[in-house]
Write a structure and sequence with these properties.
The chain has 6 helices and 5 strands, in the order H-H-H-H-H-H-E-E-E-E-E. By secondary structure, the chain is of the alpha+beta class.
């Protein structure tokens, strides 16, 4: 007898109803809002696995998972709270969150990894559109604009704000698209 195919989950994940109804014991030190956020995130990830739409982020590194969670908190005070609890400076986590929001794991990688040596011929595309630029490994910089070539051979645009470089657009295979 063939094994029955399990039913496909609902069209999208939701907030787990049981978490809304149950407050953690006061002595636990767990805030109900944090519990709802974590349970909702777990439900979304489980839904992704159950629906066959991904691995639920199970293969993410600490930095990737933190950036993923922080991307949903951009522009809210909760981002600073998450940074504090994770032991990461709030400005750094904001940069990671912006990178994840714009470009997912690839954007985060070019944000947090040190410059890597790249074939100079590969950088000629960027120099053609930014003739006054300077080159440092895989980074082409002019003023407050920087293009970085990622290991995925995509270009990423960073703009300088308050001495920090922030990824500001989705990546492109053509650096001209980022100007």
């Amino acid at each position: 007898m063939p094994v029955p195919v399990p039913p496909r989950p609902l069209g999208s994940p939701g907030v787990p109803a049981a978490v809304k109804a149950l407050d953690p014991p006061r002595s636990s030190g767990v805030d109900v809002r944090d519990l709802v956020v974590l349970a909702t995130d777990a439900a979304r990830r489980a839904w992704e696995v159950a629906s066959g739409d991904g691995d639920g982020g199970l293969g993410l590194t600490f930095e990737e998972d933190l950036a993923r969670r922080a991307a949903d908190l951009l522009g809210t005070p909760e981002l600073a709270d998450l940074a504090h609890r994770a032991g990461v400076p709030a400005r750094q986590l904001t940069s990671w969150a912006a990178a994840w929001h714009q470009a997912g794991p690839g954007g985060l990688a070019v944000t947090i990894h040190t410059p890597t040596d790249t074939d100079p011929d590969t950088l000629k595309e960027a120099l053609a559109v930014l003739p006054e630029a300077t080159i440092d490994a895989n980074r082409v910089t002019t003023g407050k604009l920087q293009l970085r070539l990622g290991p995925d051979n995509l270009w990423y645009r960073f703009d300088q704000h308050f001495n920090d470089w922030t990824l500001t657009r989705p990546p492109s295979p053509d650096p001209t698209d980022l100007l």
